[in-house]
Fold this protein.
Amino acid sequence: MSDRSQYWTRMLAAWLLALSATMGALFIGEVMGQMPCTLCWYQRIAMFPLVLILGVAAFRGDRGAWRYALPLSTIGLIIAGYHSLQLSGLIPSPIVPCSVSGPSCSGAGMLIMGFPIPYLSAVAFAGISLLLLPFVRKSP
């Protein structure tokens, strides 16, 4: 596989991952009517611009787009990882993001394929980051 086609394949896969996560978040919020908790909002703030950045980068063949996309996906991964660790009970929650009185992303109705939304968000951010990492090594 040529270097150009490998670049395009990786960037397209990262874009499709970001697009899927964004469409899922919009479906949950707008169609299902579920309000996201505070940490889910922060994850959305990191994910939504990735759709535009990665889409334009794939279309234009912009090899430097990782400079914009990788920091966003890393920040999103950190937030999603922290949120997932809180939900799993591995770290204490000084602020309860998914409370009984407010929006909850960990309730039975908020599981997708049997997993809480923050777990899926962490997987999406990790996948995007892993797809972008090879571009860091190839940059001058």
Observations:
- The mean pLDDT is 85.
- The two ends are 22 Å apart (CA to CA).
